[in-house]
Amino acid sequence: LNTMVHSFMRTRDSNDIASTLAESKALTHAVEEVFATFGKHRLLASRQDEIRTGLARHTKALNIAASASHRHQMSADHFLAVSVPIATTLYAMGVHSGETDTAQIAQAKRKLQASFASSRAAVTRFLVTLQATDAETVHEDMKRFEATINAQKVTGQERFDEFIDYIRSKLPAYRDEAYSIAQAVTIEAEAEAEINKATTDLDRILDQVKRTSSELRAQTVAVQLADMTTLHRSMLGVTGLTILLGLLLAWLIGGSIARPIGRMTAAMRNLSTGELGIEIPALDHHDEIGRMAAA
Known about the structure:
By secondary structure, the protein is mostly helical. It has helices at 2-11, 14-38, 42-45, 48-95, 103-129, 132-151, 158-272, 288-294.
């Protein structure tokens, strides 16, 4: 969106304006979707109002800038359109001169042509520079041209007086369009300053969200590593205990088998020597050893 805003501010193209407004609307919608999904998360819970306020300021200023830019372009086109008849009339007035012109009329024509040229040049220069000082010049030169027209009195020379009346009839539109350009550019400048300020505030908020997100991610990783370490230690402990229990059980089982067999071996050795009065061990066992003892 920032890239598109900068492009729009640079070109003032109607397509760029439309694209920027559409992107702003899409961004607002996307942010609301994020809030709907993750709004209760502590990462965003405390930032929602700030982000919404910043976006609302940005959108409002963007709409004002777009409207002022459209007005600026329209006023510039209208200014050029209304200036042409005046320029044509002044040219015709200069051509329609001759022996009938008095010195006073000749001087009036020169003064009118000079003041008009100065006013139109001031507006043209302002359209190029868009500087506040040039806007002041527009107002000064326009007032000077208007005063020159209004100061012109009826001379009695019909053709000249008709020219003056015609220019005087076109003067309000010419003046108003020039002032409209200056006003639109002023509004544009104020809106663009507000856009820049809102953008700076949003960047600051989003940077804070990013930093907080990184901190939370680091904390989560640390907790996970700690849990994994604890689990690893627990598994080692359980494994060691299982091995010990297995060894103990093996010793017990081995002993329960080896001891009776050892006693049986000793008894069989005594029997083989003819000693029949010995006690046969393991007669009470109910397993293979017991059956061997009974035999």
